[in-house]
Amino acid sequence: MKKKILLLALFVFMFGMFSFIGQGEVQAGVGEWEELDPAPFGSVHRSSAVVINNKIYVVGGFYGTNTLKVFDYINETWSELRACPSTAVNSKSVALNDKIYTLGGSNLTEDIEREFRTYDPATDEWSILPSAPSDTGSMVAINGKIYVAGKQNYLMYDPNTNQWSILSNRSQWGMAPSAVALNNKMYMNNYSTTVHAHRFYVYDPATDTTEELASASIATYPSYISSSRLVTYNGKIYALARFSLLEYNPMTDQWSTMSNTSICDGDYSAAVVVNGKMYVFGNGGGGIYQSMVQRYIFEESDDPTDPEDPTDPTPTTGNKALIITLDNGFDKTYLVTNSQLEAFIDWFESANDNDFYTINNPLGGKGAKDYLVHDKIVCWRAADI
């Protein structure tokens, strides 16, 4: 009898353990948030982040941090790299030509917002570049150049000449804490705690002009977009505001609320989108949240590096949406036929680093084409439409 009781107790214990393990492995679904393990090696709050070759690089952090960390989002592991030459709290970073360009920051005693440096992952080395000619703000990479929404002027840096240019005056638009590139234009918010906290703008480098867009007035305090991080996904812009995720559609010039959440305070966080998921580093609450890492699921997608199926998905019938993630963290979406998708796959598998692929861009107007450089593509996926 005792033996039966012991066996029954063991069975109940093992069943409970398996149930607990199974619950622990439940992952967030589409439209949901999940919290990952905290980032090691210091704070990631008030940092900046970029994507290069299936890795997320996080530059700086709060309390004067100058660390450079790399997050392997596929295996969810961290490594620490060579530190930035100067403190990088509140710095801005972009990826261009497989390098990280980092602008500005603060060392808690003085601003260093004009300092400009670049990091090469291939050599684990930093280089100091010419300082910006005036006070700076957020920046983006467009057509091989870097554009900065400065406090007084727009600025442009050309990596081919290693020189800055001062563009049009933008003092009337206010400071832009965050900006993203979409369709060769720069979209940005405006820092304010007043009525201007919802204002939103777009800058066109081709004409050197700025236009005010629809206000994100659907966001009420404390969900201002003024200090939120901006990201792009599938042709739309997302503002990671305080405890809410807002979506902006540039085709309709309208805002909508995607998610209200108590888990993510996006105030001054760093964020990138890769492979259908948004990764957020740091949290506006500060304190114990300095190393917080969170993930939002836009779309369930297969691992692009899966050795069993490196070109997933296999074309079937009907038109496809081809979504390509570039090394600057941005997604480009194209409508393609089965044969066009097969042609892209054949090119992608056989191309060299500097080879480019020509593809129609329906958002660019009649006859518009994009030229995709092979070594700028981080990953791609296709979906039926």
Q: Can you give a write-up of this model?
A:
By secondary structure, the chain is mainly beta. Helices cover 9% and strands 43% of the residues. The strands form 8 sheets. Strands 1-23-22-21 form a 4-stranded antiparallel β-sheet, with no helix packed on it. A 4-stranded antiparallel β-sheet has the order 2-3-4-5, with no helix packed on it. A hairpin with a 2-residue loop joins strand 6 and strand 7. The longest helix has 23 residues, at 2-24. It is globular. The model is unreliable at 1-25 and 304-318 (pLDDT under 50).
Strand % is 35-45%
Poorly predicted tracts of residues: 1-25, 304-318
Per DSSP, the total helix count is 2
Strand order, sheet with most strands:
1-23-22-21
Describe the structure using short key phrases.
385 residues, mainly beta, 4-stranded antiparallel β-sheet, 9% helix, globular
Topology:
Layout: H1 2-24, E1 33-36, E2 48-52, E3 55-61, E4 65-72, E5 77-81, E6 92-96, E7 99-103, E8 116-120, E9 125-129, E10 139-142, E11 145-149, E12 153-158, E13 163-169, E14 179-182, E15 185-189, E16 200-204, E17 209-212, E18 229-233, E19 236-249, E20 254-265, E21 270-274, E22 277-281, E23 293-297, E24 320-326, E25 331-336, H2 338-350, E26 356-360, E27 369-373, E28 377-384
Antiparallel strand pairs: 1-23, 2-3, 3-4, 4-5, 6-7, 7-8, 8-9, 10-11, 11-12, 12-13, 14-15, 15-16, 16-17, 18-19, 19-20, 21-22, 22-23, 24-25, 24-28, 26-27
